[in-house]
Amino acid sequence: MKRISLRMAVVILALAVCLAPVAQAAEKADETSLSADLGLGVASFLCTLPYGAIKVATGLLGGIVGGFTYVLSGLDMRAADAVWYTTIEGDYVITPDHLRGKKDLRFTGVPPAKTPESR
Question: Taking CA 65 as the corner, what is the angle to CA 64 and CA 68, rounded to the nearest 5 degrees?
Fold first, then answer.
């Protein structure tokens, strides 16, 4: 188990070190160029692989836990929705706009605003 987590940490650190110059160069460029767009496309693909796998696993586990929350809370849909929205919603893919800083990357979703219950 230690080896797997150590390897994942090394891969994530290596991706961060390798992709930081690409994002910084794209941020400095005012006009779009084919090479910057290509670099950001490749970088977003490489970042999406580990991020997307973790996000899918989180979404699946959140769906299961939300189902248990619904049953164990006495069929309270608001409790289940709080788990489902938080774990299932969010971004699954990292786009070049995320790397440019034009769009925020949201790992978790935001539950809907509380509404007064109708009785």
Answer: 90
pTM of the model as a whole: 0.66
SS (H, E, C) 75-115: CCHHHHHHHHHHHHCCCCCCCHHHHHCCCCCCCCCCCCCCC
Interior angle at CA 19, CA 18 and CA 22, nearest 5: 115
Residues with Cβ within 8 Å of residue 96, at least 6 apart in sequence? 26, 37, 40, 41, 43, 44
Residue at 56 is within a domain: yes
Residues 5-43: pLDDT tens digits?
A: 667 676 666 666 666 665 565 555 555 788 888 888 899
> Would you say residue 116 lies in a domain?
no
Place of tokens 């409790």: 79
d(C-alpha 16, C-alpha 100), whole Å: 14
Q: Is residue 39 part of a domain?
A: yes
Residue whose C-alpha is closest to residue 94's, from 16, 5, 8: 16
Q: In terms of residue numbers, what domain contains 74?
A: 2-100
